[in-house]
C-alpha cells in the first residue's frame, strides 16, 4: 500500500466535474510530477489532497489514516502541506509572521525560521517586510518556507515557477533538490515538461479530470507524455 | 422562430387568476367598512400600513440589497412633517401625502451619502441618521420635546367619517405603492433590480446602473414609509417623537420581510399578514411578544432565510404575481408579455437594463 | 473649559472600550454585530445582579462575568454568526438585530424598566477625584476607565502581533481558506476572536454601569457610540478607536456646551461630518469605512 493514496477521487465545482475518478499512489520519499493542460484538474486534485476541496466521491489516504473527511488544518498536523497556486501569502503580515504561521499545527521537526532563511538567503534582509511588498521570487520562497515550517511528510507544490524569471526558477528548484534528497515526499504540478520529468520519479499526465498517462519519469518517452497531454494518446490507442 | 427556440413568457393561467383575485380583493376591501365594526376598521387600517412597511423595507433590502435598521427615520419624519404642514394650515388629509412626498425628496440627498456605505455600515449609519433626526425633531417648539403634540385639525371631522376616510386612504396608498413596486419590478428597471439582487458586481460589469437603481428604491422606500408614518399619525392623532422614531418599527419591518420571504414580492405581503395575526393574538402579552418576534426573526434568518413564501416558491415553483420571465423549451405555447402568468419554471433570465 | 476637554478625553476612553470589540469583530469576521450594545448592557445587569443579591463588588464580579462573556462570544460565533454568515453579508445583520431585540426585552422582562447603576456598589470611587495642577479635578473612575482602555488596546495589539493565536486570528481575517491550508483552525480562530471581543464588551458594560445609569433598552445608544467611534477612528489600527472615542466624546462635550440637548446631537453630527469628509476624499470607490480587509495578494 502506498504512503499517500488517492482512490477514485471525484471533485465537483458546482455542476462541473473537475476531477473524475482519479486513482494513484505515492511511496515515501518519492517525487511525483502532475502535468497536463490548463483545466485538466491538477490544481483541484492537489487542493483536494490538502483538504481545500471536499470530494464528491472517493478517498484520500495517508498511511493507514483516511483523510477524506479531515479538515485542511488537521491534515497539516498529519503531515501534508500545500504551497498553493498564486502563493496565497498573508500580505499584511511579515515574512517571519507568514513562516511562523506554518508552525501552527505544531508538528515536531527541524524546520525553523532561520533554517528557511538559510535555504532562501534572499529572504534574510526581508525578514520583517510585509509579504505584499516582496518580489515574486521572494514571495514564492516565503510560500515554500511557510509550508516547510509545518515539517511535512508530503509537500504539495502547485506551479511554483509560475510568473518567475528563469534565474529565480533555477534557484527555487535548486532548493527543492535539497528537499528531495532529504527524503520528503513531493507531489508537484509543473507546466515545464522537461523540468517536471527531470525532477520527478513518477509522472502523471491529466486530461479533462482523468489520468491520461501514468509512467516512470526516467523511462517514459517525452513524446508519449506530449501525446497524453494533448489527448492524442487515447485516440491512438483506440484503433489498435 | 424555429420550434426549438425557448419560449419566454411571464406566466400562465394561475397568475392570471391571481391578478383577477387581487382586483376582487381590493374591491371587496374598499366596500368592507360598511360591514365592519369601528374597531375592525382600525385594525384593517393598521394591516394596510404594515403591508406598506413590509413592502417598502423589502424593496430596499430584498431587491436593493440595502439592509437598513434606521427606516424609522422616514416613519417619524412622515408623521412629523404632516403635523407641521397641518399646523401651517394645510388640509390634514392632504398633509399626509404632501408629507410623504417631502420625505421622498429629502431622502434623495441623503442617498448620495448613505448609498456609498456597504452592508452593516449602511445599516447602522441609517440608525444614526434616525437617532439624529429624532433629536432634531425634539428641538421643534411645536413638538415640545418628548411631550409631543397632536394632529388637532383632524378633529373637525366626525369620528366615523374620519375612520373610514383614513381606512380608504390607507387602502389606496397600499394598493398604489404595491402597484408602483410591481410595475418597477416588471419593467426594465426590474431586470436591473433582479440582476443587482443576484450579483451586484456582475450586474455592474454588464452595464446595470447599480447606484441609480438602488437610489430609486431608497427614495421609493422613504416615500412609502413616510406615507405610512403619516397614516399612522392620522389613526392615532397624537405624535410623540419617541414612539415614531422608535427602532421597533424597523424591527417589525424586518420581522415581516424575514418571515414572509425576503426578495419576493408576495412574501412581504404574507409577512405583514402573519405579523398582523401574531400581533392580534399575542400583542397583549407585552414583552414576551417582543422577545418572541426577535427570536422568530433569528430562527428564520438561521434556518429559513428565504422565508415562508420563498420556501413555498422554491418547493412548488409557484409564483402568483410574477415579476420575472419564464423560459420553457417545448414548442406549443406562444410567448406573451402577459399580465399574469404562473407556475414559473426554474430559469429566470436577467435582461440587461 | 480645559477641565471639560480633559473630561471629554477621559470619556473617550469609555467609547474606545465599547468600540474596540465592534471593530475587532468586524476586522476578523467582517460582521457588524448589532447586538453589541445589548450585550454590554447584559454584562452590566449581570454585575448589578451579583452586587445586589450576593454583595459582590463589581470589580470582583468581573471575574465571573468576563469568562461568561467569553463563553457567550464563543457560542455566538459557533451557533449564530458562523451559520448566518454562510447566507451572505446581509443575513448576520438581521440575525444580530433579532438577537438584540431578544436580549433587550428579556432584560426588561427580568429587571423592569427602572434605571440601574453600579455606582452604589463601588464606594467612593464613583465620586472621588484627583486635583491636577491648574485646579482641574479629574474623576478617579474616569482615569481608571481611560487607563483600562489604553491597557486593553495595547494588550490586544500585542496579542495580535506577538502570539501564535493572534497571528492565526489575523491570518483568518485575511484569508480563511488559506489559513486552513497552513494549519490554522479558522473556525476556532473566529470563535476565539468573538470570545475576546465579548470580554471587551463585558468590560465596557462594567464601566457603563459604574459611570452612569442603564436600563434594558440602553444597548442601542451604546451600539451607536461604538459604531461612531470605530468609524471616526477607522484608519485601521486599534489605536484609531481610541482617537475615534476621544473625538466623539469631545464633540458631545462641545455639543452640550452649545445646547442642553446638544450632547448626543454633537456626537452624531461629528460622525456624519467625518463620514462626509472621508467619502468625499476617497471618491466613489470607498465602500468600507472600518478596517478594510484586503484579501488579494498584489
List keywords for this structure.
heterotrimer, A: 240 residues, alpha/beta, Rossmann fold, 6-stranded mixed beta sheet, 4-stranded antiparallel beta sheet, 9 helices, 10 strands, B: 353 residues, mainly alpha, two-stranded antiparallel sheet, two-stranded antiparallel ribbon, 14 helices, 4 strands, 3% strand, disordered C terminus
Describe this entry's structure for a reader.
The complex is a heterotrimer of chains A (240), B (353) and C (298). With 240 residues, chain A is α/β, with parallel strands linked by helices. Chain A has a single domain (4-237), classed as Rossmann fold, CATH 3.40.50. Chain A has nine helices and ten strands. Chain A has helices at residues 42-50, 72-78, 95-101, 113-119, 136-148, 166-181, 193-199, 222-230, 232-237, and strands spanning 4-13, 16-26, 31-36, 57-62, 65-66, 80-83, 154-158, 185-189, 202-207, 210-216. In chain A, a hairpin with a 2-residue loop joins strand 1 (4-13) and strand 2 (16-26). The radius of gyration of chain A is 18 Å and the shape is globular. Chain A starts with a strand and ends with a helix. By secondary structure, chain B is mainly α. Chain B has a domain at 36-263. Helices cover 68% and strands 3% of the residues of chain B. Chain B has 14 helices and four strands. Chain B has a two-stranded antiparallel sheet with strand order 1-4. A two-stranded antiparallel sheet of chain B has the order 2-3. In chain B, helix 12 (265-282) crosses helix 14. Chain B is globular, with a radius of gyration of 21 Å. Chain B starts with 6 loop residues before the first strand and ends in a 25-residue tail after the last strand. Chain C is mainly alpha-helical. Chain C contains eleven helices and four strands. Chain C has a two-stranded antiparallel ribbon with strand order 1-4. In chain C, strands 2-3 form a two-stranded antiparallel ribbon. The radius of gyration of chain C is 19 Å and the shape is globular. In chain C, 56% of the residues are buried. The model of chain C is unreliable at 291-298 (pLDDT under 50). Classes of the chains: A alpha/beta (240), B mainly alpha (353), C mainly alpha (298). Chains in contact: A-C, B-C. At the A-C interface, helix 2, helix 3 and helix 5 of A face helix 6 and helix 7 of C.
Amino acid at each position: 500500500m502506498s504512503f499517500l493514496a488517492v482512490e477514485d477521487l471525484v471533485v465537483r465545482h458546482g455542476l462541473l466535474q473537475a476531477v473524475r475518478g482519479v486513482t494513484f499512489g505515492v511511496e515515501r520519499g518519492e517525487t511525483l510530477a502532475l502535468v497536463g493542460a490548463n483545466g485538466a484538474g491538477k490544481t483541484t486534485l492537489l487542493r483536494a489532497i490538502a483538504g481545500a476541496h471536499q470530494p464528491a466521491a472517493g478517498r484520500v489516504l495517508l498511511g493507514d489514516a483516511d483523510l477524506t473527511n479531515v479538515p485542511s488544518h488537521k491534515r497539516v498536523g498529519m503531515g501534508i502541506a500545500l504551497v498553493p497556486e498564486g502563493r496565497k501569502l498573508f500580505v499584511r503580515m511579515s515574512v517571519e509572521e507568514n513562516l511562523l504561521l506554518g508552525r501552527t499545527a505544531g508538528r515536531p521537526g527541524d524546520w525553523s525560521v532561520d533554517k528557511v532563511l538559510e535555504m532562501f538567503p534572499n529572504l534574510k534582509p526581508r525578514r520583517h517586510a510585509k509579504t505584499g511588498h516582496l518580489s515574486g521570487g521572494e514571495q514564492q520562497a516565503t510560500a515554500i518556507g511557510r509550508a516547510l515550517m509545518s515539517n511535512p511528510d508530503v509537500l504539495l507544490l502547485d506551479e511554483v515557477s509560475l510568473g518567475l524569471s528563469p534565474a529565480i526558477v533555477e534557484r527555487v528548484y535548486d532548493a527543492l533538490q535539497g528537499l528531495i534528497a532529504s527524503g520528503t515526499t513531493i507531489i508537484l504540478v509543473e507546466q515545464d515538461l522537461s523540468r517536471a520529468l527531470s525532477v520527478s520519479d513518477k509522472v502523471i499526465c491529466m486530461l479533462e479530470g482523468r489520468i491520461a498517462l501514468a509512467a516512470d519519469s526516467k523511462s517514459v518517452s517525452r513524446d508519449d507524455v506530449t501525446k497524453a497531454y494533448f489527448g492524442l494518446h487515447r485516440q491512438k490507442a483506440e484503433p489498435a | 422562430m424555429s420550434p426549438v427556440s425557448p419560449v419566454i413568457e411571464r406566466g400562465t393561467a394561475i397568475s392570471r387568476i391571481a391578478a383577477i383575485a387581487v382586483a376582487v380583493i381590493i374591491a371587496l376591501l374598499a366596500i368592507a367598512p360598511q360591514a365592519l365594526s369601528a374597531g375592525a376598521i382600525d385594525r384593517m387600517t393598521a394591516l394596510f400600513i404594515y403591508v406598506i412597511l413590509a413592502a417598502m423595507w423589502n424593496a430596499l433590502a430584498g431587491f436593493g440589497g440595502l439592509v437598513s435598521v434606521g427606516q424609522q427615520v422616514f416613519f417619524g419624519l412622515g408623521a412629523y412633517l404632516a403635523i407641521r404642514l397641518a399646523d401651517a394650515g394645510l388640509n390634514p388629509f392632504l398633509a399626509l401625502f404632501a408629507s410623504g412626498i417631502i420625505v421622498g425628496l429629502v431622502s434623495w440627498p441623503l442617498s448620495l451619502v448613505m448609498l456609498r456605505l456597504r452592508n452593516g455600515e449602511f445599516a447602522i449609519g441609517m440608525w444614526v441618521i434616525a437617532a439624529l433626526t429624532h433629536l432634531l425633531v425634539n428641538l421643534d417648539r411645536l413638538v415640545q420635546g418628548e411631550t409631543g403634540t397632536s394632529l388637532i385639525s383632524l378633529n373637525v371631522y366626525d369620528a366615523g367619517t374620519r375612520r373610514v376616510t383614513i381606512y380608504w386612504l390607507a387602502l389606496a396608498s397600499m394598493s398604489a405603492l404595491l402597484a408602483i413596486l410591481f410595475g418597477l419590478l416588471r419593467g426594465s428597471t426590474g431586470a436591473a433590480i433582479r440582476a443587482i439582487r443576484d450579483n451586484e458586481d456582475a450586474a455592474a460589469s454588464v452595464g446595470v446602473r447599480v447606484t441609480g437603481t438602488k437610489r430609486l428604491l431608497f427614495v421609493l422606500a422613504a416615500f412609502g414609509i413616510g406615507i405610512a408614518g403619516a397614516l399612522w399619525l392620522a389613526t392615532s392623532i397624537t405624535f410623540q417623537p419617541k414612539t415614531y422614531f422608535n427602532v421597533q418599527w424597523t424591527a417589525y419591518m424586518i420581522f415581516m420581510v424575514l418571515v414572509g420571504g425576503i426578495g419576493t414580492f408576495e412574501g412581504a405581503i404574507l409577512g405583514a399578514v402573519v405579523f398582523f395575526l401574531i400581533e392580534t393574538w399575542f400583542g397583549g402579552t407585552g414583552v414576551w411578544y417582543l422577545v418572541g418576534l426577535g427570536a422568530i426573526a433569528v430562527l428564520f434568518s438561521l434556518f429559513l432565510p428565504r422565508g415562508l413564501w420563498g420556501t413555498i416558491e422554491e418547493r412548488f415553483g409557484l409564483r402568483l404575481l410574477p415579476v420575472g420571465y419564464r423560459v420553457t423549451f417545448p414548442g406549443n405555447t406562444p410567448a406573451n408579455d402577459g399580465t399574469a402568468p404562473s407556475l414559473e419554471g426554474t430559469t429566470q433570465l436577467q435582461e440587461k437594463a | 473649559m480645559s477641565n471639560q476637554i480633559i473630561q471629554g478625553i477621559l470619556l473617550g476612553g469609555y467609547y474606545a472600550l465599547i468600540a474596540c470589540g465592534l471593530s475587532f469583530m468586524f476586522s476578523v469576521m467582517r460582521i457588524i454585530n448589532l447586538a453589541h450594545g445589548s450585550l454590554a448592557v447584559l454584562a452590566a445587569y449581570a454585575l448589578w445582579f451579583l452586587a445586589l443579591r450576593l454583595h459582590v463588588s463589581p470589580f470582583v464580579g468581573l471575574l465571573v462575568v468576563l469568562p461568561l462573556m467569553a463563553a457567550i462570544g464563543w457560542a455566538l460565533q459557533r451557533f449564530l454568526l458562523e451559520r448566518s454568515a454562510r447566507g451572505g453579508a446581509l443575513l448576520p445583520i438581521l440575525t444580530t438585530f433579532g438577537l438584540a431585540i431578544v436580549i433587550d426585552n428579556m432584560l426588561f422582562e427580568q429587571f423592569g424598566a427602572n434605571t440601574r447603576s453600579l455606582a452604589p456598589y463601588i464606594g467612593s470611587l464613583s465620586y472621588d477625584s484627583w486635583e491636577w495642577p491648574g485646579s482641574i479635578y479629574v474623576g478617579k473612575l474616569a482615569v481608571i476607565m481611560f487607563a483600562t482602555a489604553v491597557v486593553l488596546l495595547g494588550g490586544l495589539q500585542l496579542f495580535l502581533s506577538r502570539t501564535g493565536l493572534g497571528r492565526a486570528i489575523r491570518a483568518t481575517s485575511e484569508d480563511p481558506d488559506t489559513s486552513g491550508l497552513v494549519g490554522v483552525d479558522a473556525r476556532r480562530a473566529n470563535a476565539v476572536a468573538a470570545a475576546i471581543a465579548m470580554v471587551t464588551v463585558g468590560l465596557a458594560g462594567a464601566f457603563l454601569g459604574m459611570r452612569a445609569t442603564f436600563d434594558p433598552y440602553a444597548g442601542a445608544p451604546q451600539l451607536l457610540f461604538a459604531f461612531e467611534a470605530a468609524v471616526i477612528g477607522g484608519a485601521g489600527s486599534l489605536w484609531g478607536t481610541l482617537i475615534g472615542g476621544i473625538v466623539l466624546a469631545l464633540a458631545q462635550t462641545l455639543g452640550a456646551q452649545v445646547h442642553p440637548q446638544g450632547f448626543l446631537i454633537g456626537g452624531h453630527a461629528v460622525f456624519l461630518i467625518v463620514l462626509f469628509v472621508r467619502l468625499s476624499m476617497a471618491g466613489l470607490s470607498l465602500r468600507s469605512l472600518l478596517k478594510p480587509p484586503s484579501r488579494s495578494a498584489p
